[in-house]
Amino acid sequence: MITTIERDDDPRLGGYRHVGDPQWLEANGLFVAEGRLVVERLIDLPGIVVESVLVTAAAHRALEARLSDDLTVYLAPQAVLNAVTGFKFHRGCLALARRPPHPTLSVLGNARCVVVLEGVNNPDNVGGIFRSAAALGAGGVILDPTSGDPFYRKAIRTSMGAALSLPSVRFSTWPDDLAELSKLGYVIAALTPRGADTIDSFVERVPAGARVAWLAGAEGHGLTDGALAQADATVRIPIDDRRDSLNVVVAVSIALHRIA
């Protein structure tokens, strides 16, 4: 159903006024996807309820073939999108969707490799890790209570939609919940510049077919002592001695590629 909207105070656009308020969106069980490519991927995903899509005429022409008849589509001028969102929104395409239920570790299935994040709250880093994890064969991403929301619109955009399709689990009791991964047979490998193993030596000695959980922390302070105490191995990626560390997205990507 396509509805033309001419005024930015139209009540049907109420949810879109909170695009910049992630707390309101989460409290109301919603998330926002932005940009044509991400919205295309969103509407193709099974199991996610899309409340509506808000598009300019140009974006509608680009997406028209992908928009099913049972999807609510609001067509509005660019000026209306800018006024509703509160900023100059140039991508011409937004979608409001229902947040999925909080999953358990069962969503990982038989995944051989997963990523575990502690204190990674920058949405660019969260989204970048999801993008790499999806591209490099990880079966899911696990987040501690302080890591960023993968359903935050910037994280979704940076992940190129991977945050919507790759399973993710939020641990509530940290770092004690890491023991649940050990029970599932995962070798917990903590990425740290002070690692006892180089990444090559770790990969060489890990048993063939072993399940590996790469544990990574925020840039700056890195992993906490409590998280490191739960790890089965500490692993470093050798870099130039004049540099202290790698960006967390880069480090996780290297680890995923190496174990694959």
Overview in brief:
The protein is an alpha/beta fold and 260 residues long. Helix content is 32%, strand content 21%. It is elongated.
Topology:
Blueprint: E1 2-4, H1 22-27, E2 30-34, H2 36-44, E3 50-55, H3 57-63, E4 73-75, H4 78-85, E5 93-98, E6 113-118, H5 123-135, E7 141-143, H6 153-158, H7 162-165, E8 168-170, H8 178-183, E9 186-191, E10 197-198, H9 199-205, E11 211-217, H10 225-230, E12 233-236, H11 248-259
Parallel strand pairs: 1-4, 3-4, 6-7, 6-11, 7-8, 9-11, 9-12, 10-12
Antiparallel strand pairs: 2-5, 3-5
Helix pairs in contact: 5-11
Features:
single chain, 260 residues, alpha/beta, 60s Ribosomal Protein L30, Chain: A, Alpha/beta knot, seven-stranded parallel β-sheet, five-stranded mixed β-sheet, 11 helices, 12 strands, 32% helix, 21% strand, elongated
Q: Could you characterize what this model shows?
A:
This protein is α/β, with parallel strands linked by helices. The chain folds into two domains: 2-98, Ribosomal protein L30/S12 (60s Ribosomal Protein L30, Chain: A), CATH 3.30.1330.30; 105-259, Alpha/beta knot (3-Layer(aba) Sandwich), CATH 3.40.1280.10. Helices cover 32% and strands 21% of the residues. The protein has eleven helices and twelve strands. The protein has helices at residues 22-27, 36-44, 57-63, 78-85, 123-135, 153-158, 162-165, 178-183, 199-205, 225-230, 248-259; strands spanning 2-4, 30-34, 50-55, 73-75, 93-98, 113-118, 141-143, 168-170, 186-191, 197-198, 211-217, 233-236. The chain has a seven-stranded parallel sheet. A five-stranded mixed sheet has the order 1-4-3-5-2. Strand 6 (113-118), helix 5 and strand 7 form a beta-alpha-beta unit. Helix 5 (123-135) runs parallel beside helix 11. The chain starts with a strand and ends with a helix. The model has no long low-confidence stretch (mean pLDDT 94).
